[in-house]
Q: What sequence folds into this?
């Protein structure tokens, strides 16, 4: 592995989500290999491009029809690759910014609402039933609740211990990803197999895959049921667990 590619691989988030981990994030590294040294192309600009592509994807979903659905599926993945590229580029150049991270996370939340709102509408047009719209609404609400629980939990802990974030940061693994071009095929296969457990977290990386498959095969309503039920479960479960942590003053990294 050459030095530039090794440096880019090191920018990959060790805790990448499921689809991000072994598909969109490696693709982002490949594209960053070509574009990371272009000075005018900044991480914030990539965030804007990603959000713009996400909006276009939602428009194609709302427009309906198999061709538009397939185009939307491709655009959703393009948006996600760009979303991975911005953080990698910032870490590679050693120019991460608080505002950049803020806007990246903000646009991520908006994209989920746009995509599932669009799918809910498209499924409503197909079925003439309100259920898909309600499923999309419930799923987005409880997905946002997962993030709300995390940050309210952090705020609550900080009121008790101002050093809480410093203590939690020590719990987060700083080890490099045990895979890549410099590793053997067996090591990479073991890493790939271990990453598959993340599919059960039903986070944004899983949504990219779910949305793509449902659009390509035009199975919107079953996907919306999976989305809504998984987010209701995790919204309630994470809230309950966070409450227990606070009650027992247990120090643990809070997942979304």
A:
């Amino acid at each position: 592995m050459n030095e530039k590619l090794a440096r880019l691989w090191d920018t990959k988030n060790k805790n990448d989500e499921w689809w991000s981990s072994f598909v969109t994030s490696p693709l982002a590294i490949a594209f960053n290999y070509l574009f990371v040294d272009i000075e005018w192309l900044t991480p914030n600009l990539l965030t804007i491009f990603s959000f713009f592509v996400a909006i276009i994807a939602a428009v194609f979903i709302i427009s309906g029809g198999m061709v538009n659905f397939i185009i939307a599926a491709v655009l959703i993945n393009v948006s996600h690759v760009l979303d991975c590229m911005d953080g990698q580029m910032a870490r590679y150049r050693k120019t991460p910014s608080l505002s950049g991270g803020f806007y990246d996370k903000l646009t991520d939340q908006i994209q989920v609402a746009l995509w599932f709102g669009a799918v809910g509408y498209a499924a409503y047009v197909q079925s003439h039933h309100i259920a898909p719209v309600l499923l999309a609404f419930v799923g987005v609400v409880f997905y946002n609740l997962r993030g709300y629980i995390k940050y309210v939990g952090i705020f609550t802990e900080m009121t008790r211990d101002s050093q809480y974030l410093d203590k939690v940061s020590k719990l987060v693994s700083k080890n490099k990803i045990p895979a890549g071009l410099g590793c053997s095929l067996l090591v990479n296969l073991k890493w790939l197999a271990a990453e598959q457990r993340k599919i059960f977290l039903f986070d944004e990386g899983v949504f990219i895959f779910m949305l793509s498959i449902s659009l390509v095969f035009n199975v919107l309503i079953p996907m919306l049921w999976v989305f809504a039920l998984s987010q209701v479960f995790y919204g309630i479960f994470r809230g309950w667990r966070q409450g227990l942590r606070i009650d027992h003053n247990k120090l643990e990294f809070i997942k979304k």
About this structure: Residues 90 and 96 are 5 Å apart (CA to CA). The mean pLDDT is 91. The radius of gyration is 19 Å. Residues 3-248 form a domain with the Four Helix Bundle (Hemerythrin (Met), subunit A) fold (CATH 1.20.120.1760).
